[in-house]
What does this fold into?
Amino acid sequence: MRIGDLSARTGASRRSLRYYEEQGLLVSSRSPSGQRHYEDEHVQRVRLVQAFLAAGMSSGTIAEMTPCMAEPNEDRARQALEIMSRERARLSQAIDHLAAARNALDNLIEDNHAYLARSAQDGS
Amino acid sequence: MRIGDLSARTGASRRSLRYYEEQGLLVSSRSPSGQRHYEDEHVQRVRLVQAFLAAGMSSGTIAEMTPCMAEPNEDRARQALEIMSRERARLSQAIDHLAAARNALDNLIEDNHAYLARSAQDGS
DNA sequence: CTAAAAGCTCACATCAATGTCAGGGGCAAG
DNA sequence: CTTGCCCCTGACATTGATGTGAGCTTTTAG
It folds into this structure.
């Protein structure tokens, strides 16, 4: 599969896929002429990267968490675990923040409804 | 209360507070010499803005949602309601994305634990 | 009164992911 | 062979909130 196919299957632009590779988030084998080739499993890999990016992680953080290219070893695994639990906490906190913002928004919506109801009753 | 006090009470930098004002998210009364002065209620206002910004809303969106300076009128209220429900949906979706990313992270964490356990058992 | 601390405006810098354009190959079908 | 489509690298642009610094004025504390 070439980069255009992977792009079509994941929704990530070709530009983004090259960027992911540049950041160490994705690997590719190259044809003799230099074109990138991917396997089916890379589709899942890109989806994971997309999910983490959409969750507000930086590419550097994702690279630290997911040993995609480097040989896994114990020290690296322990360090990755540390980063993962830190990021997990950050995600939980972000979820809480979003929920709080949604609550605040619900209050505003209610206020606005009340305003409109009053406005209609008072005779516009 | 001057800008430094408001900054201390909200954690927003002076720069950010001026930026919020520039974007129409915050109002201030000015002393004859031009210094900004705030009331206690503005602390809450800044906290709301911070919550929405932290939730990934743009300042433009926040401005559209929260009629902070303009006279409220019916049309404006209806339009704000529309934007608010759109943003509420966006927030809910973002929460889902974050939860999905956290699940993916949990899987990685488990994989990593399994790897370390196996590594310890095999004799490092 | 004087010096430090805080404010003001304006302008430029930053970061990160992505868009976009330019200039140049590679490969398949007519 | 040539036309068309996909790919390559490299560079510059963008967006939005915030940092930072300069140059100057106001307020406050000693």
About this structure: Strands of chain A lie at 29-30, 36-37. Residues 13, 15-16, 19, 31, 33-35, 53, 58-59 of chain A lie near DNA strand C (CB under 10 Å from a C1'). Chain A touches chain B through 40 residues (CB under 8 Å). Chain A is about 70% helix and 5% strand.
